[in-house]
């Protein structure tokens, strides 16, 4: 089950479309959907989580807590809407495109993709693009 939670004044339009899309990402990686919680928040909230749980005193767009077991994908994904908007502006893409990239990014981590090395980051970006292209596409 996929749930969307809002800690700020933001609501994802057409949640059911996003649910289907996230499920299709997981299916395309030959994994199974468990419980995934998306929590939309602001920079301040995500910074507190980053400091408390990861000992990183930096702003970030996403923090994911992976509770996956084998091929059952589950976890909590915190997303700063402020960071997503700033990144969209910096990368000259729409807010919606950047939000999809970040939402896919969290699930891709659960599927085993990393982004700590340059090689891993290149693959992660390719996978993000591939999964964004699944939006509105039924598998």
Instruction: Tell me the number of helical segments per DSSP (H or I, 4 or more residues long).
Output: 5
Q: In which range does the helix fraction lie? A: 40-55%
Distance between the termini: 18 Å
- Order of strands, main sheet, comes to 1-2-4-3
What is the radius of gyration? 14 Å
Find the CATH superfamily: Metalloproteases ("zincins"), catalytic domain
H and E string: EHEHEEHHH
User: How many domains would you count in the coordinates?
Assistant: 1
At CATH's second level, what is the architecture? Answer: 3-Layer(aba) Sandwich
Low-confidence stretches: none
The CATH topology comes to: Collagenase (Catalytic Domain)
Task: Give a short summary of the structure.
The chain has 139 residues and is of the alpha/beta class. The chain has helices spanning 15-28, 43-54, 81-91, 95-110, 118-132; strands at residues 2-6, 32-41, 62-66, 72-80. It has one domain: Metalloproteases ("zincins"), catalytic domain (Collagenase (Catalytic Domain)).
